[in-house]
Structure formats: structure tokens, C-alpha cells
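Lab notebook, page 48
Experiment: co-folding of the full assembly
Goal: obtain a model of how the components sit together before planning crosslinking
Operator: M.T.
Materials (sequences as entered):
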Amino acid sequence: MRIPLRLAGLSGVALLLTVGLAVAQDQKPGTDGTGDPKAVSSDDGKYVDKSGNPTFSIKPDGTVDYYTFSGYIRYTANCMPCHGPDGLGSSYGPALATSLKRLSYGEFLGIVASGKKDVNAAQTLVMPTFGDNKNVMCYIDAIYIYLRARADDAVPRGRPEKHAPKPAGFSKAEDQCMG
Amino acid sequence: MRMTSFKRVLATGVFLSSALIATGAMAQADLDKAIANPGEWAAPGRTFDLQRYSPLDQINASNVGKLQVAWTFSTGVLRGHEGAPLVIGDTMYVHTPFPNIVYALDLNNDGRILWKYEPKQDPNVIPVMCCDTVNRGLAFGDGKVFLHQADTTLVALDAKTGKVEWSVKTDDPSKGATGTDAPFVMRDKVYVGVSGGEFGVRGWVAAYAIKDGKEVWRAYSMGPDKDMLVDPNKTTDLGKPIGENSSLKTWKGDQWKIGGGATWGWYGYDPKLNLIYYGSGNPSTWNPGQRPGDNKWSMTIFARDADTGMAKWVYQMTPHDQWDYDGINEMILVDQNIDGKMTPLLVHFDRNGFAYTLNRETGALLVAQKYDPAVNWATEVDMNPSSPTYGRPKVVQKYSTEHGGEDVNTTNICPAALGTKDEQPAAYSPETGLFYVPTNHVCMDYEPFRVSYTAGQPYVGATLSMYPPKGDTNMGNFIAWDATKGKIVWSNPELFSAWGGALATKGGVVFYGTLEGYLKAVDAKTGKELYKFKTPSGIIGNVMTYTHGGKQYVAVLSGVGGWAGIGLAAGLTKPNDGLGAVGGYAALSNYTALGGQLTVFTLPQ
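Observation: model returned without errors.
Model output:
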């Protein structure tokens, strides 16, 4: 498990992060890289699975929790230019909706914060370090929750049509983090 | 020497190449000689006017259907391949995306590699290249080949040996500045610009001495007058002096310092007027509410003195951009009859969906019309010289993302951020008087939000999703355009955005490549398809032609990528269509895969 060292330098980020980190495992039916995504509890509109990792909550009528919605917005602005729309990949970057079937929440955080380099004769894949980028790190759990929902086929492509209202504490945490 | 090449140029009658010596500086004899020879392709647009027209006619409308592949070459790089190779004498020069390899290929020997240049660049530059590691090609002159590397190193290579003659750093990639544009050589100078509008880079164009790489001038897109090389009294905007602090007045505080206006497009040059022409890109960020004002001079056509850099005139097409409609597309220079008068024109197909025809000497706006009927963000451009909004687009409120505001999704805006046309250059045929334009036919939803700036990090500030216009399934068109009237003459639908640069020829054939990988040849008069061949990967490169050993060849780079590869790889969706339609539009990944290949065509013996 990789620890996102750079996170410490960003005051406020912790507010939006959850503590429990799952270990990567082989995917079992109904699970993703972090395990069973089923939401067991929530705190101010943010859902967690039984291990305490952030997860999505989708109502039968398709209404998504606010974090899933916010994650779509932030993913599309910050990640889409390389990873393609809706986590589906591009000619440039891998499909994260597929990667998260395999990667755990902890590994995801580590890669986003520290970047990744895979440069060899066949390919030149380089992901920058986003640890200092507030536009990404202040919303990292939301981005994870959205991509987790995509990995589990819980939300379709495109902007979620209906979403839960913005949780009471969301704007405050956002303001503190963005500065 | 000078006289000889002067005569030769006159003899061929190649438009605009004829005035070799405008201000006394020594002409680059080898470049002028190569440009004057219809069998060579020595500059990105072939000629300084960027017409992408070849006077060759061995391959023509009656025989192009018999075209065959003559030889191929793998570049060894699997990324988006934009631009086109150069041919000078018996040598072809081929460039690649990052790591920016340059190959010199021997045309006398089936493309044997004469030399190869591969720079050592820090791979950390890769992720700061928005939308793929593309490079748009090389320039030639004074016995040297010029390359603007991803890491913003401008390098001059000995055309015979590939040895580095000089190199100079033009900007700082750690701040998000990258080099993707093809340099432009004119007489004793090499011109380049910078990419990085999505990283808050402040755009500039600079001229370097061809001999030693010494910077001669640098002109920013925004900021104080002295940084921009503008004269408040002499530089004009639609005929009127721009006045003092024309840029600073249109930004809040110091925002111009990270204001964008990148300059990653092509350069046109008129030797008679000694002016170079180019456009500046979008203002940073994509969230318009965060940067009040017109954000001058982003989204602007610049006409600058080639020797001093001083701007003669400017024209901002999209004041206070709210859609990412970069103004960097090429400026094509033609002389055409307009309103009964032969006029020196500049024709520009902008990302914003309007095609502009201006008098390139004065900067007067003559025609501004939509070149895709789907364009809806503005009704028209105000053409009334006495109107206070003269020259400005009439923005439709419901498509204004600024009016919608932060965290509001503004829907069904046409065109999408990739524009009705992106960097893929159009061509012009003096035979037909028409422009041949590869276009995108894609709309979008756009949702701006607050964003914070960190040097070297993306500074985007909006989310967007793209889809074809309502009721259509084609995401592109290849059109013929009359720039004097502002009208489409014919239009061929394309399944995907037409993202390959066009070539017009005296043979009455127009060539272009498609994202599925087809090289297509169509009749210049009617648009009728005469030939197509599927190359190994999608084409975002520009078609070129040359002769060798008395035979005409047509060449194009394949290698899908760029914005097209990112936006279209997975296919487009229309979120509000509901679950049933999701994935209903064609996915490019079902048609082609990554590649990097040059394909050269000719007629059978």
C-alpha cells in the first residue's frame, strides 16, 4: 500500500478523506479493487462501505449521492483530458473505470498524489503528481466515489441526471480546502 | 545567386513567393528555391501563404482512382501524429510525437534512414502536454531543419547530417509550457509559439536568428503594451488605434499573467507587406466568471511586422471566451475578387464556427459566416461599422456559460470545445477559388466552476460532455467554402470529425485523411469521392505531395490521437437521451488503434 505523502502538506484535504484503506485483492463477483462497494453508513451525505472506504449510493430512480455527482464534474475537468470521458480511457490514457476494478482506494490515492511513470520502448505513460493540486485533491474522495461507481457499473455514462442535494458541510469543507 | 532564384520564382508564378526581398534582409536561397519548385515541400503549408496547394497534376481526377501504396515507413512511436513530412531535394524529413524523433529518409533508396535525431527529454513534460504528445512538424532553411521539442527546446539540425547546430530554450515546461507547433522559417528568422493554455501559460510568439538561435523579438498575447509589441497609436483593431493598455484594461488585476492566449498554430507570411499572421488561443481558465473582461488579446488574429514583431493590426474574434474556442487555426492568404475588387485577403476558419475573411493589409472585416449550420452560440457577427458592438459575435444568452454561471450545466452548445475546426489546416485551390475544410460537427454541455491556480498544474475550470448535433450521427463534414460570399459550396458528411489537414492540387483532386484512417481523394469541383485507402491508424496528419524521379507522390502520417483520440475514442454520449441511447454513437476505438506510420502513394507504372 502506498501512502500519499504529499497529502500532509495540503491543509484541509484531510477533511474530505476517509480513514479506512482497503488492501488490493483479486476481484470477486460484486466487488471492485477496494472490496464490496455496498454502502453501510453515511455521514453528512458521504457514504462508506463496511471497511470504512468511501463509496457511492444510488437510489432505484437513479438519483446519485452528491459525492458521485461532484466526482463526475471534477473527473471530467481534471482527469478526462487524458483518461477520456466517463472513465472509459482514450488513445492517451487508460480507462479508470476498468483500473478501479483492480486498484484499491489506497492505491488510487497513492497514484493520484504521487503520479506514475511507465516509459519504455513500447509506451510513454506518464501521470503527473496531483498532490499539490487543490482542484484535484480537495475532491479526491468524490472523484474516487464516482469512478468506483463507474467501475461497478452503478452509474451510466454522462452527467448524472439526478443527484442528492449538496450536504450541509460540503461547501464549508470545500472552502477550507480550496483556500 | 539571389538573381537566379528570384527569376526562378517569378517563372513559376507561385503566388506570394515572388517578392523575395522586402526589407533588405538576405533571403534564404535554399528555402526559396525549394518552395519555388512544385516537386518539393519545404514548409508546413508548402508556401508562405499556407494555401496547401500543389501545382502538380500528374495525379488528377481522371487517374487518382488507380492510386497505389508505393512505400511505407513506421515511425516507431504510437501517439497522435499531426503535421506532415518535408521533402527537400532527394530527402524526406519525418517528425514524430514525443520523444520528437526526426528521420531523414533517402528517396533514392526506398526511404532508407540517412540520419536520425532523438533528443533526450525529461518525460515529466508528457503530462503537461494537454491532449496528447503531438508535434506539428518541421521547418527548413539555411541548410538546417528546425524542430520545436515538447520541452520547449528549439533545435536547428544540419539538414545533411542531423548534427545539432544550435539549440535554445524558449519557455519553461515546469510551468506547463510545451512546444507542439511547427516552426516557421522566413528569410533570416525562425518563428515559434507556445502551448499551455490549460496550464495558465501566457502565450507568446518569438523570432530567432536563423544563424545562431539568438532571440530577435518576443511578443506576448496579453499584458503591458511593451510586452505585446503593440503601438497604442499605430496598431489598429478594425481600423481604429487600440489605445494604451488595451490588454491590461480587459483583465481583473494580475490575471493576465496566467491568462493563456497560447500560440500553438501555424504561421502565414506575406512578403510584400512583410507581415506574419497567426492566432492566439483561449484565455485561462475555462471558467469565464473567474476572469471578467474581454481578456484581450486572447482569441485574436495578429498581423505583425516580421522583422520587428510590432503588431500592425489585431482582431479579437471571441471576446471573453466562454467555450474554449481557441483562435489559433491557420491564416490562409489569398488574393480574390471581392465586391468587384481584387483584394489581399486573409481567410480563417475559427474554432468558434465562423469563417472570417479580412483584408490582410488593413485588418478590415469583410465576411464572417458560419461554416457549419449547426453553430448556435452566436446568431451572427455584427458587421455594422457604426455599431458599438462592431465585429463582435451576437451571443445567444441560453448558450452563454457565463450567463448560466458557476455550477450550472449549459446544454446543447454548438460547436463543442474542439471547435467546428481544430488545428487541422484547410487548403485553397486557385483553380476553383474554393477552400477545402475538414470540420467537426459536435456539440457540448459545458459546466464552469471555480478553480485554483498552481504553477505547472492543469487550470481548467469546466466540465464538458460532447455529442453530435441533435438528429445527426455524423461527427464531421468535409466542406468546400467560398470565402468571398461566406457560403458552403458542397459538404461531405464524415462519420467522425475530419481531423486531417487537406491538400488541394492542380490535378483537380483534393486529399484529406479521416479518423478511421482513410486517405480520401475527392473531386475539387463536386466533392465526389474518387479514391480511398485505409491506412493502419487514424489520420490526424496533413496530406502532402512531391515528385521524385519524375513521378508524383502523395504522403500522409497515420497515428490516431490528439484531442480527437481523447474525446472520441470511447464514443460520444448524450446524457439526456436516457439509458437506451447510451453508447449509441460510434466509438473510434472500434475502428482504429494506436499507430505511427507514413504511407506514400503513387500511380502504377
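Interpretation: The mean pLDDT of chain B is 92.
Next step: discuss with group before ordering constructs.
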